[in-house]
Amino acid sequence: MRTLVAPGRSRTGYVVALVVTTVVLTAVFVLPLVWVVLSAMKPAVELARVPPTVLPETWTPGTYAEAWDMMDLGTYFRNTLVVAVGTWAVQLAVDVPAAYALSRLRPVLGRGILGMMLVTLMVPAAVLLVPTYMTIADLGLLNNPLSLWLLGAANAFTVFLLKRFFDQLPVEVLEAARIDGANQLTMLWRVVLPLSRPILAVVSIFAVVAAWKDFIWPLLVFSDPARQTLSVALQRFAPDTPVNLLLAGLVLSSLPVVALFLVFQRHVLAGLTAGGVKG
Predict the structure, then answer these.
(1) Is the peptide bond before 51 cis (omega within 30 degrees of 0)?
(2) Measured between alpha carbons, how far is 257 from 44 in angstroms, rounded to an integer?
(3) DSSP string spanning the chain?
(4) Cα-to-chain-centroid distance, residue 234
(5) Which residue ranges does the record assign to the ABC transmembrane type-1 domain (predicted)?
(6) What's the mean pLDDT in 78-99?
(7) CA spacing 20 to 30 A to 81: which of 19, 87, 140, 257?
(8) Pick from 248, 262, 270: which is nearest to 198 by CA?
(9) pLDDT tens digits, residue range 188-213?
(10) Which among 155, 183, 176, 178 is positioned nearest to 96, based on CA atoms?
């Protein structure tokens, strides 16, 4: 924004441009969410009206409770929670030690290993679907949460973020712990992890949100309706469910991740900016 309107030359123009940009971006992101929330509280007949109404003429907030009961969303919330929490735990258990090893232990060919990890980010996910599915099927893990936990274990982007953060940790603190007789595992658990809470919050939110909203992979591995996640279940209910009830289900399924981000947004910003200025 400062490159478009210089504050020193035109303070008023700068403020106007900033306000307009903020309002436009807020409207782009917020208005669709508001429309979904309000549309879920309209009767199906009013929702199908052309042109559509902005605010409901007949408010039916009970649509949310009806959608919860009709689609048995409690079961799918529980399934999705198991998948998300398990994916988060397995991912941190694998990626934190891997990033620490690449950052502090500096193994032979460590840079090459990290480079090969990052190359996997350039491979389209669709290319890996068939071989991954065949592997999971051969292991007998279909309709098992392990099929999603293991897939999210080695995340190259998470390893990269963690390594970059570990690289910025004060060497003096680690040297002091080493002089006190701490081994590498003790330093990781008692020194590095407490100092890494901001970046751990960031990668935790990324892991939970990605697992919560994932659709293609759960659709492939969970053929049993009783074990499906929210995203898959809502898609299965879509053809035979009134639109207002389906919208209510979509709103309810989004609430946990929105609440998670609002609660931890300060940690997200701190984690993403940590280590940006070295001094």
Answers:
(1) yes
(2) 27
(3) -TTTS-TTT-HHHHHHHHHHHHHHHHHHHHHHHHHHHHHTTS-HHHHT-SSPPSS-SS--TTHHHHHHHHTTHHHHHHHHHHHHHHHHHHHHHHHHHHHHIIIII--TTHHHHHHHHHHGGGS-HHHHHHHHHHHHHHTT-TTSTHHHHHHTTS-HHHHHHHHHHHHTS-HHHHHHHHHTT--HHHHIIIIIHHHTHHHHHHHHHHHHHHHHH--HHHHHH--SGGG--HHHHHHHHGGGS-HHHHHHHHHHHHHHHHHHHHHHHHHHHHHHHTTSS--
(4) 19
(5) 77-264
(6) 95
(7) 140
(8) 270
(9) 888 999 988 889 988 999 999 999 99
(10) 155
| Alpha carbons 264 and 202: distance in angstroms, whole number | 9
CA triplet 8, 26, 1: central angle to 5 degrees?
20
Buried b (16+ CB within 10 A) or exposed e, 80-94: bbbbbebbbebbbeb
> Of 137, 141, 142, 146, whose CA–CA distance to 221 is shortest?
142
Residue 176: C-alpha distances to residues 165, 166, 172 (Å): 19, 16, 6
pLDDT confidence bin for 271, thresholds 50/70/90:
low
Angle separating helix axes 197-213 and 243-273, nearest 10 degrees: 160
